[in-house]
Amino acid sequence: MNIYQNSRILKKFLIVILGITLLTACDSIQAEEKNITKAKILSGDNYGELYDQGKLRTYYLYTPKSYNPDRPMPLVLVFHGDDGNGKSISNVTRFNELADKKGFIVVYPDGIDQKWSLRGNAQGRVDDVSFVNTLINHLQQQINIDSHKIYATGFSRGAILTQALACKLPDKISSFASVAGSLPVRLKSNCEPRTSISMLTINGTNDRNVLYEGDDRTQRGALLSISDMVDFWRSHDQCTSSNKSPDFSEDKVKTAIYTGCSGNSAVWQLAVVNGGHFWPGGSSTDKSLNKFNANLGLNASETIWNFFQSHSL
Predict the structure, then answer these.
(1) Per-position b or e across 94-118, b if 16+ CB within 10 A of its CB
(2) Burial group, residue 147, by CB count within 10 angstroms (0-12, 13-18, 19+)
(3) Rounded Cα–Cα distance for residues 143 and 44 (Å)
(4) What is the pLDDT of residues 113-172, one digit of tens each?
(5) 61: part of which helix (H) or strand (E)?
(6) Banded model confidence at residue 216, pLDDT cuts 50, 70, 90
(7) pLDDT tens, 69-105?
(8) What CA–CA distance (Å, rounded) separates 93 from 4?
């Protein structure tokens, strides 16, 4: 073997060694990047994004201090109302504080232009029900979520979206809570979930945005009255018994708890007497609302979590 051949062999050997070194370095860098990503979502405030239906979507995520990547944890999705965003509804509901106490993850998605769309159309609007499905799949790849304990709640237009999710995603979300919202009339006829639906509703009897007796005059479109909405879910679940506040009750919150429902589901209705369009027990800069909340003694977020804990897929 001559010197030229030896040189060629040496070059090949060095190239192989260099290639192995580079691959090892790349694997190390990728592992480090994965570890960094994982570390970012271990606890506290996080902000994420993903592409869906050709749109960049964003969300605010809070993981409690007790989160352990090796143990699955419940997930609560919280949807803001019109002109809000994920961060603003987190401040109002204070679910982050509750998440630290009770041990669950909270995600607050952002609507496009601070609004939610229940169906896409030719004008480029997205289908936010489909987006929520994509978001759940995305989060399950990012963080250890208990797939049997995924819950959804929302305020106002976010509550209307929550009702739509109950119709369309009962295989992904185990129970629902609607605050200051109702079921759209046009959605009712197409709402035929194959499983029982556990639904908690909280509405003010003096709500001027989502009328207690039904709303067919707003840009949201026609909404069922609160009693018709509750009857719809109670009938769907084939509930056989109820426990209601008596008509002569002076309680500030009238309750109707429907049980004996199929699939161990339940329907709860809370009517805040003389209450308006608000999140009971939530944070507010309105002094009169804070006074009303103090006298009311109802914390919607705690009530919702207690309801959620009783149900899983």
Answers:
(1) bbbebbbebebbbbbbbbbeebbbb
(2) middle
(3) 13
(4) 999 998 766 577 899 999 999 999 999 999 999 999 999 999 999 999 999 999 999 999
(5) strand 55-63
(6) low
(7) 999 999 999 999 999 999 999 999 999 999 999 999 9
(8) 76
- The pTM for the full model equals 0.85
**Greatest CA separation for the chain:** 108
Q: Rounded to whole angstroms, how far apart are CA atoms 142 and 134?
A: 13
Q: What is the CA radius of gyration of the chain?
A: 25
In a 10 Å sphere around its CB, with 0-12 CB exposed, 13-18 middle and 19+ buried, how is residue 218 labelled? exposed
* One-letter amino acid for residue 59 of the chain: Y
CA distance 203 to 279: 9
Spatial separation of the C-alpha atoms in residues 185 and 191, rounded to whole Å: 10
Strands 105-109 and 175-179: unpaired
**Distance (Å, whole) CA 57 – CA 154:** 18
To which H or E segment does residue 22 belong? helix 3-40
Residue type, position 222, single letter = A
